[in-house]
Amino acid sequence: MKLVFSSADGIRRIIGLGWLLLFLTLLLQLSEMLVVEKPGSKGLTLFAGFNLFEAFLWGIFGGICCIAGFRKKRYAKIFFSLAYLFILFGYSDCAEVTTGFWYRPWWLFCWKAFCLIGIIILIWYLLKVSGTFSSRNR
Q1: Do 90 and 26 form a contact (C-beta atoms < 8 A)?
Q2: How far, in Å, CA of 135 to CA of 13, rounded?
Q3: What is the pTM of this model?
Q4: Could you give the residue ranges of the DSSP H alpha helices within the chain?
Q5: C-beta separation of 109 from 120 below 8 A
Q6: Domain assignments of the chain as residue spans, ordered by start
Q7: Does the pLDDT of residue 135 top 90, yes or no?
Q8: Phi, psi of 5, rounded to the nearest 5 degrees
Q9: 28-36, Cβ contacts within 8 angstroms, sequence gap of 24 or more
Q10: pLDDT by residue (tens digit) across 21-66?
């Protein structure tokens, strides 16, 4: 049995692998932050540990969206865009560890707001396009 892939499948796979590599980079950075202690530091604080765990979870959501993009080819662009935003939001949590606040400096607040607004819009659009919001014989 011969498997035939279209060029769109190949492009989807390449994009998905790119997002997967981005996700793996996030995991590597998180592991380095947890293992390497800076001189004079007293270890990982609860705040930093929670934010790193949260970044890991956003990365997991991004990985799940990558897998969904491979499986649901009709909605692949939406899922890959969601994966990008989830992973980007995870990176913002890593930045939050170094700044100490989610709203300071101003660019971190803008970064998080951009990601959250994009995630909300894409999930709403996905539900709309997939027919979840369709009215049934009103």
Answers
A1: yes
A2: 34
A3: 0.69
A4: 7-35, 46-71, 76-99, 106-129
A5: no
A6: 7-129
A7: no
A8: -115, 140
A9: 29/94, 30/55, 30/56, 30/59, 30/94, 33/94, 33/97
A10: 666 666 666 665 555 555 566 667 778 888 888 888 898 899 899 8
